[in-house]
């Protein structure tokens, strides 16, 4: 039996699929998210799963959740920092300041809490693997990405910087930075406007959550002396837009 994999944001999209994939590989699963009904459904599907119903922004809940893990789930080998979201696509002038705060609190501070809670376990075990889910938005700007993209740029640089501090501890760190992928991401971004969300993916063979789970598994299965620092993966149909020039309107 393999050790335990802890996945944040396991009720949908990448996180849910990564939980399925790692469970198939024999890992015990700790699944964390806010939606209890979905976590319970996933746990009954997978078996050997401990659920934590919590908001990653709730520092106390995250640290308590890790401190109070049942004994058989304390051997965390893999942490997947996946919970995250974008809210809105308005420009920075129009954007709702509370949406901006929610992205910072979830994508940056939430990721910090689960990382800080789990790293001591990995250090004690002298073994571990942290996957941080970034985004192409962390490297490539687009209109309306302001805080979301910046929060994912944090994930990129934090992932690299962590590696320096973890040297000699047998802990690997990989940032997986996906591009367009059909999950509930756009439904969340557009606050339940399913029609608008579906339009984002219309006519595009977008990345599937299973593709990201496969990439993660490929990294995990590399020999322990190999650390894949970053994987950036786009749909073949997606490319960079190029630089925009706004012409003077005389
Ligand atoms: P989904 O909306 O399908 O899934 C998001 C998951 O995160 C859900 O399980 C949700 O669970 C959880 N989550 C969100 N906020 C919180 C919170 N405050 N506390 C706990 N859990 C939370 O989107 P994706 O699967 O696409 O997104 C997963 C990650 O991938 C995110 O970090 C996203 O930024 C990133 N990403 C997505 C891309 C895409 O195109 N889809 C591309 C690049 C990166 P619940 O609501 O139950 O709490
Ligand atoms: C999600 C991909 O392009 O919508 O991170 O920012 S994108």
Automatic annotation (TrEMBL):
Keywords: Oxidoreductase. GO terms for molecular function: oxidoreductase activity, acting on the CH-OH group of donors, NAD or NADP as acceptor. PANTHER family: ALCOHOL DEHYDROGENASE (PTHR42901:SF1). This is SDR family NAD(P)-dependent oxidoreductase. Belongs to the short-chain dehydrogenases/reductases (SDR) family. Pfam families: adh_short.
């Amino acid at each position: 039996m393999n050790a335990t994999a802890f996945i944040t944001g396991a009720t949908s999209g990448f996180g849910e699929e990564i939980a399925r994939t790692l469970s198939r590989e024999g890992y015990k699963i700790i699944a964390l998210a806010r939606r209890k009904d979905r976590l319970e459904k996933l746990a009954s599907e997978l078996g050997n799963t401990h659920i934590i119903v919590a908001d990653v922004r709730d520092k106390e809940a995250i640290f308590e959740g890790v401190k109070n893990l049942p004994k058989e789930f304390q051997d965390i080998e893999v942490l997947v920092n996946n919970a995250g979201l974008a809210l809105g696509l308005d420009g920075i002038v129009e954007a709702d300041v509370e949406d901006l705060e929610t992205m910072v609190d979830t994508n940056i501070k939430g990721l910090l809490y689960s990382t800080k809670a789990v790293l001591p376990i990995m250090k004690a075990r002298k073994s571990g693997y942290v996957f941080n889910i970034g985004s192409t938005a962390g490297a490539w700007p687009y209109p309306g990405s302001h805080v979301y993209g910046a929060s994912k740029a944090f994930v990129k640089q934090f992932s690299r910087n962590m590696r320096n501090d973890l040297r000699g501890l047998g802990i690997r760190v990989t940032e997986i930075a996906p591009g367009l992928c059909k999950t509930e991401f756009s439904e969340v971004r557009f606050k339940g406007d399913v029609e608008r969300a579906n339009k984002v993916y219309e006519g595009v063979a977008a990345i599937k959550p299973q593709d990201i789970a496969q990439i993660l598994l490929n990294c995990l299965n590399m020999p322990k002396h190999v650390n894949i620092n970053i994987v950036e993966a786009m749909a073949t149909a997606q490319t960079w837009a190029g630089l925009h020039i706004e012409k003077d309107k005389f």
